Amino acid sequence: MLVHLNGVLVTRAEARIDPFDRGFVFGDGVYEGLRAFRGQVRAIDRHVNRLRESLQSARIDFDPSLLGRLCEDLLRANKLDNAFLYWQFTRGTPGVGQPVRGRVPEGPMVPTIFGYALERPSLEKCSEPGTTTAALVEDFRWHRGRVKAISLLGNVMAAMEAREQGAEDAIFVRDGLVGEATATNVFVVLPGDRGESQIITPSLDRVSILAGVTRGLLLEHCGEIVERPVHAEELPNATEILLCGTNTMIASVLRLDGRPVGRGEIGPVARRLAHQLVEIVGAELETPAAAVSR
Ligand SMILES: Cc1ncc(COP(=O)(O)O)c(C=O)c1O
Q: For the domain that residue 9 is a member of, what is the CATH number?
């Protein structure tokens, strides 16, 4: 595997980072996770825009428009067509004379840029939703969930708590409102007033969650999805609960807190959204201008 470190492609064994890097010492950095199919990066513009927001919030000096080119080079170097790509941008390492414990960096710092790519299934294989189980966990994380911060300790602790309860993932709840899972956004299928199903995803205004790129694609292309606050007490009525993300694509939550969700199997909405997502991404890949091509 070749990884990218500060402008150079090296083997994992050759990649070395200073232990005083503020990413390591403070978790002082932001990241992006992208997906490539058939050698092209999906939804690159959305990832660039989100990275720009994260970098600006953290005041890290890096030009996000370089992301597409970085991905291209990493895919080519690793001979990968279908992959998950991870990019991390830390504030960097204090230089000689710069304090190593100063919360505010004194003077300019060169960001550390690290990226790797992992092989993932082809787009066609994503038509079938994955499955998982989840536990509700109190959201004890910070209140800036839109920033894609590398400090994922809260997510790690919640996932471990869920695991201890016998579930594979955690769904965060704060003040009675459903947020997101530890690496995905949440969609809930609820029966409507007239017996029809409604697909609902938590709106970003009331909960501190990430504006997921996959969530955004589904909202833009599937007009039927409603954004509104979702109360945890509504979840027992859900016929389906779905998780979506760049790495996961679509997964059905079969059990929540040990109880089956709906029939406890992949439901019709999960199948439909998984197909639609594959179509959305497939259509983008057919439009070379919209994607970064190898
Ligand atoms: C906490 C959290 N929520 C949601 C998502 C889904 O976002 P995306 O669809 O951009 O991968 C992620 C992805 O890493 C995440 O970490």
A: 3.30.470.10
Q: How far is the CA of 195 from the centre of ligand 1 (A)?
A: 31
Helix (H) or strand (E) holding 29: strand 29-37
Task: Verify that 116 and 131 share a domain, yes or no.
Answer: no
Q: Please report whether residue 293 resides in a domain.
A: no
Co-location of 145 and 101 in the same domain: no
CA–CA separation, 54 vs 30, rounded Å? Answer: 6
Number of domains in the chain: 2
**CA gap 124, 173 in Å, rounded:** 33
pLDDT, tens digit, for every residue of 219-271? 999 999 999 999 999 999 999 999 999 999 999 999 999 999 999 999 999 99
Ligand 1 proximity of 149 Cβ (cutoff 6 Å):
no
In a domain, 13, yes or no: yes
Residues 89 and 193 in one domain: no
Q: What is the pTM of this model?
A: 0.95
Query: Residue 184: CB within 6 Å of ligand 1?
Result: yes
> 116-153 pLDDT, tens per residue?
999 999 999 999 999 999 999 999 999 999 999 999 99
Using alpha carbons, list the distances in angstroms from residue 247 to 32, 41, 231, 274.
Answer: 11, 13, 26, 13
Distance 131 CA to ligand 1 centre (A): 17
